[in-house]
Amino acid sequence: MIDEAAAWARLDALAKPPRSLGELEALAVRLAVVQQRIDPVTRPRALTLFAGDHGVVAQGVSAWPSAVTGLMMATILAGQASSAVLAAAHGCTLRLVDVGAVTPPPQPWPDHYRSVPVAAGTADLSQGAAMTAAQFEAAWTAGGAEAALAVGLGNAVLITGEMGIGNTTPAACLTSLLAGASTDIAVGRGAGADDAAMVIKRRIVGEAVDRARPRLADDPRGAISAVAGFEIVAMAGFFAAGAAAGATLLLDGYVATAAALVAERLAPGTARRMIAAHRSAEPGHGAALAHLGLEPVLDWQMRLGEGTGALVALPLLDSAAAVIRDVALLADVLAPQ
Ligand SMILES: Cc1cc2ncn([C@H]3O[C@H](COP(=O)(O)O)[C@@H](O)[C@H]3O)c2cc1C
Ligand SMILES: O=C(O)c1cccnc1
């Protein structure tokens, strides 16, 4: 078994002054422990993006209309979204899966697109449950199938990201419900909500979580379904299946971490296979990561989603893996035979 002590012993035996690579060594330890190997691998790697819309956008919680979800999906498929250019820059494949966009991109669809819509957006979570039990299962299953596909293709590192206007509202609900963050901490500006939208968003999140919380102990799926989104549940299913299949999960920002909270709640132990790439500028992200026992690699004030924070951290993962795997032993350098 590779525990932290074993990984540190290996790093301290390499041809360098002990701990001279600073935080890179801590990342190498995490990678070795997650993968249970002293020679961790970070290739091949895959990004699976899930897209969905949110009925609660009608209440004015986002600075953007739901139609932007579909427009960005088309931009992702054209290779011109932040996620797509960063994935290409770092040798990461990309797939986009529609689990419930209101206006999906027009056909013909490329091979790296999959259309499995659960519904044309969730119901408005401020008025009732965001989704039914059957819809929850459909989204969870779609996510799990994608993780199985990515693992089946031999990917060592899995990233999942999202596109869904309004989705920082369900993410805030889940962070409050599952990580115990107060509404004030959990609600941030997302993609640029102004002060008026923030007032609405805080009220809606507070009320929705108050309604869901009493159900959490006896009916966690029901409580989660009340306040989640299709792309978030799909990401949760992706994490659970990816972890069960032994993949390394590189965790993106606030919305992805809300999905990680769902996965850990329903499939305990999933977070043990996760490496948190960054802490988002969304104020609740730190609380969500702490609840999962994860330390972020970067704190760069990113707040985009689409898997971008994870993609930016990928070269650091490559660096950490290369060091612990390939650097010579100091003993061999000092006493060549
Ligand atoms: C052009 C554009 C591209 C994006 N890519 C990711 N998001 C991110 O912002 C949205 C969540 O923020 P909120 O809850 O405030 O709507 C999601 O679509 C998320 O993926 C984007 C947002 C926009 C506007
Ligand atoms: O951190 C995130 O995942 C995030 C932040 C703002 C908007 N969308 C996503």
UniProtKB/TrEMBL annotation:
Pfam families: DBI_PRT (PF02277)
An annotated Gene Ontology molecular function: nicotinate-nucleotide-dimethylbenzimidazole phosphoribosyltransferase activity
Keyword Transferase: yes
Record-listed E.C. numbers: 2.4.2.21
Pathway the protein takes part in: Nucleoside biosynthesis; alpha-ribazole biosynthesis; alpha-ribazole from 5,6-dimethylbenzimidazole: step 1/2
Keyword Transferase assigned: yes
NCBIfam families linked to this entry: cobT_DBIPRT, PRK00105.1
Protein name (Swiss-Prot/TrEMBL): Nicotinate-nucleotide--dimethylbenzimidazole phosphoribosyltransferase
Source species: Sandarakinorhabdus fusca
Lineage, uppermost ranks: Bacteria, Pseudomonadati, Pseudomonadota, Alphaproteobacteria, Sphingomonadales
